[in-house]
Design goal:
This protein is mainly α. Helix content is 71%, strand content 0%.
Length: 174
């Protein structure tokens, strides 16, 4: 819908497609988060961190703010803090899985490959998340353990099933 359509609906008293805010604090948290998101995109990490922390103080359930905060912490190489933020994300399965994968990537980056593999294996076991298997293979490949990488990539290909690898997983073939 266009902005004009939304304004017309609001003026006519019809339901809005916008989420209703339950409190002024929730509205303030959204405003702080909007500012944080803008600053994050502009790579103004210190300011983005301040605004995400304010947003989360006002509304600890603001998942998107937690993702931005984790991104800032990761970009500034504060991996342990970023991992904690990513691991604290729950809720929507797609967002949860991506956050946990990011935690796994940062665990490896922080020299904790075994912890990363454990986390990613857990994700695969609990959610049949093929991407987690592929990340495990990538960890082995970067460690130059090519036999283990090939084994995990083959497990991922078998888990995908079917007569061939879908185009979205073409990288498994390389």
């Amino acid at each position: 819908k266009s902005l004009d359509d939304r304004i017309e609906n609001l003026t006519a008293g019809r339901a809005s497609s916008y989420e209703r805010l339950s409190s002024p604090g929730q509205g303030a948290a959204e405003a702080m988060f909007d500012m944080a998101r803008l600053l994050y995109r502009e790579q103004s990490d210190d300011s983005a961190m301040v605004f995400t922390r304010m947003a989360l103080h006002l509304n600890p359930e603001l998942t998107e703010a937690r993702l931005v905060l984790a991104g800032v912490l990761s970009r500034t190489e504060r991996y342990d803090e970023a991992i904690t933020q990513f691991k604290s994300i729950t809720g929507d399965k797609r967002v949860y899985l991506e956050a946990q994968r990011q935690a796994g990537i940062l665990l490896e980056k922080n020299g904790r490959s075994e912890d990363a593999i454990y986390l990613l294996n857990t994700l695969y076991a609990s959610h049949q998340d093929i991407e987690s298997l592929i990340l495990i293979g990538d960890i082995h490949r970067r460690a130059e353990d090519y036999a283990a990488a090939l084994d995990v990539y083959n497990r991922a290909a078998a888990a995908i099933g079917g007569k061939g690898i879908p185009e979205s997983y073409w990288h498994l073939l390389y």
